[in-house]
Amino acid sequence: MNSLQEEAYVIHPVAVPETVKRQTGQPEAVPFIQDEEAMERKRKRTVVWGRVLVAILIFVVWEMFTRIGWLDVYYWSRPSIIMKTAWIQMTQGSLLTDIAYTSGSTILGFAFGTFLGALLGLSFWWSRTYAGISEPFLIVLNAMPKLALAPVLVILLGIGFFSKVALAFSLTVIVSALSAYSGVKSVDPDMEKLMYSLGAKRHQVFAKVVIPWSMPWIISSLRINIALALAGAIVGEFIASQQGIGRMILYAGTILDINLVWVGVVVLSVLSMVMYWGVVVLENWLSKGLAKQ
After folding, report:
1. How confident is the model at residue 3 (pLDDT cuts 50, 70, 90)?
2. How far is Cα 260 from Cα 246, in angstroms, rounded to an integer?
3. Residue partners of 15: CB distance under 8 A and separation at least 6
4. What is the DSSP string of 31-97?
5. Is there a contact between 191 and 209 (Cβ–Cβ < 8 Å)?
6. What is the mean pLDDT of residues 73-99?
7. Using 50, 70 and 90 to split pLDDT, how confident is the model at 36?
8. What's the rounded Cα separation, in Å, for the pair 263 and 251?
9. From CA 248, how far away is CA 141, in angstroms rounded?
10. Protein fold of 78-292
11. How far apart are CA 87 and CA 263, in angstroms?
């Protein structure tokens, strides 16, 4: 069946039944217009509801298995107990403060690491010699297990908030720099020559060609960076901290409060999903802005 696609619609020829043709005098085929945008919205709604149902199923199975004894409630706790413990921690404890503490250090480390890393990677366009000297050191820093340096950063900056930001920053800045540098290396040299031949200055080529060309590489690193930033903040709280979800999990493990440990795990899971969704929204916004240029 041949089809003709125009903008957001797909037009298919549909055969008319013989009885209808005799009664109405319609031709043998009429156009049937299929709205692809409506179909995409329907698909997205199906995906969202599917995810919700899968999450509900997981918690229902978890609750049922612990009640009938197939899972040891001491080690696996129970969703109903976890929710009760979380409510107590929110109303009587410091759960909301811990969430704000971990979220703040993660977002700040992610923002500064991504921005400064992108600037570092873009700066390599200005000098190939500078880029050639710096590249092996970036590769070494990227391969280095930066979490192993966490105790050093905590000793240098203390057990407060900024040591967690520094850990989140250290895990994201090199990834952003390498992503931006990959974009710089992929810039079309013919486009640069064309800009120069039209009388553009070097800073104009950088602003009009290099940055827009490298933006897809920078945007692609955002989802990786948010996960790395959260991991860095949590590890910093594990080592030494006065607040945060990581500190709460470590404390709960020390006193063998498994229910509170699971509260921390569930909260971190929800927090990571919320941050990931926020980064997806940011990516879409940046991509649309880039497409308009």
Report:
1. very low
2. 12
3. 28, 29
4. EEEEEHHHHHHHHHHHHHHHHHHHHHHHHHHHHHHHHHTSS-HHHH--HHHHHHHHHHHHHHSSHHH
5. yes
6. 91
7. confident
8. 12
9. 31
10. MetI-like fold (1.10.3720)
11. 10
User: Residue 289: is it exposed, middle or buried by C-beta count within 10 angstroms (0-12/13-18/19+)?
Assistant: exposed
Where are the chain's structural domains? Answer: 4-71, 78-292
CB of 142 within 8 A of CB of 178?
A: yes
Token pair of 12, please? 């298919």
Q: Phi/psi of residue 66, each to 5°? A: -70, -30
Euclidean distance between CA atoms 36 and 4, whole angstroms: 13
- Lookup result for tokens 């910093």: 236
User: Residues of 192-229 as b/e, b for ≥16 C-beta within 10 angstroms?
Assistant: beebeeeebeeeebbeebbbebbbebbbebbeebbbbb
Chain segment 103-134, per-residue pLDDT in tens: 999 999 999 999 999 999 999 999 888 988 98
Over residues 6-26, the pLDDT tens digits come to 444 444 555 545 554 455 554
Residue 283 and residue 219 in contact, taking contact as beta carbons nearer than 8 Å: yes
Beta carbons within 8 Å of 160's beta carbon, 6+ residues apart: 242
- In angstroms, what is the C-alpha Rg of the chain? 27
Nearest to 229 by CA among 196, 183, 278, 193: 278
H-state helical runs in the chain: 18-24, 36-68, 73-76, 79-92, 95-123, 128-143, 150-157, 161-185, 189-197, 202-205, 211-220, 222-239, 245-254, 258-292
Mean of pLDDT values over 232-247: 90
The pTM assigned to this predicted structure is 0.81
